[in-house]
Here is the input.
Amino acid sequence: MEPDFWQQRWQQGRIGFHQDEVTPLLREYWPTLALPEGSRVFVPLAGKSRDMLWLASQGNRVLGVELSQLAVDQFFAEHGLIPVRHQSIYGLHHVAGAVELICGDAFALDAEALSDCVGVLDRAALIALPATMRRRYANELYARLPAGCRGLLITLEYPQQQKNGPPFSVDENEVQALYALEWKIKRLARRDILAAQPGFVAEGVTRLETAAYRFERKG
Here is the structure.
């Protein structure tokens, strides 16, 4: 998935991955991370996710990163927010209240940029990437998060041969293979959601589950 792929998806309005509601598994399981109030939470490949506003409403400071300027602009416009902007080596920063959204490449963020992120939410980032990029994403970007960082990962599982991603199927074995060396991982839930996803059914998918994992970076 090259940057142009995602730019085109946003320009064409092909954003079926965007949710109009806050992710239910986020509401249910985020409190189990027990992050201190005011914690900074990293949201990679953020799009215009409403999850960012929900995280801010829970007393967190949000740092999102998104390639598409269109997605960034829509996020603030749809919520009636007027961001203050500034440029850095990481991209164009947009700040409104407790939400900071960088229009830039997530892989360009270094350890300094993420040094105070004690939380991470991955709802649609890992599953947006093909297998080779998932390995790079875990090995490079997650490696820049600080020791003790805690997070919530939400994935999809379905027979990959029945549908072309994104989103891609990422099962528990792959999650463990990608992260277990540097992160403590605990599966919190796995749920059948096929009936609620008619688009997958229309493409011939016969099984669809979502899973949630708790992460903690080893010291």
Remarks:
- The chain has seven helices and nine strands.
- The first strand starts at residue 40 and ends at 43.
